Amino acid sequence: MAKGLAKMAARSFGLTTARPRNGSGTKVHGVVTTRCYRSPYPGAPRELIWEDVSHNIVVKQGLEYAIGVALNNATQIGTWYCGLMYDTPTVSATGTLGSHAGWTECLAYSGQTRQEWVEAFVASANNSFTLGNSASKASFTISSACTVGGVFLCSTETGTTGTLYSGVAFTGGNRSLTTLDQLQVTYNQTLADDGS
Predict the structure, then answer these.
(1) Residue 112 falls inside a structural domain
(2) What are the phi and psi torsion angles at 17 (to 5°)?
(3) Three-state SS for 74?
């Protein structure tokens, strides 16, 4: 009786009951953790002076690569690299490694070659898998004072050819760095059912 009255009331007021979804989607979610270490005086061990945790944008080129390798027999890229962005970056979904109007790469670190992203599975569940470099962080030793604002992930150690996978501006804004500061970057990438 009560159920019948509830249905009648719903019809009277134009209410409908949502049906459960029959299918599901997929979400790609990346978290970048950047830590800066600095010596308080020459010769002293470095100490953590700040940490930033940011949620990245996987750009169109990165998504095309991911689905192409998974489902369309595209060529797999064996090694990925982390790079740094100068201050106030804006990461566009349509940006590429060769064309990214919203940001400029920072090379003010020793060696001036991007640091390898040494990935391994970090966690997995029924509908969620995370791949990251927590065990082997990308490390940059700053060679001259600069202001850094974000991090990106790409397929080449140097240059502007290759695939841009993702980029992120620091949640905490720009960071001023001095010579011999060390940045350690951890990038964890999760692929999950969009209900997870």
Answers:
(1) yes
(2) -100, 125
(3) coil
Which residues 6+ apart lie within 8 Å of 45 measured at CB? 39
Number of domains in the chain: 1
Question: CA 180, 186, 192 angle in degrees (round to 5)?
Answer: 165
CB count within 10 Å of CB 177 equals 24
Domain range for 104: 27-193
User: How do residues 41-96 score in pLDDT, each as one tens digit?
Assistant: 888 999 999 999 999 999 999 999 999 999 999 999 999 999 999 999 999 999 99
Question: What one-letter code names the amino acid at 27?
Answer: K
DSSP state of 165: E
125-168 pLDDT per residue, tens: 878 899 999 999 999 999 999 999 999 999 999 999 999 999 99
Residue type at 21?
R
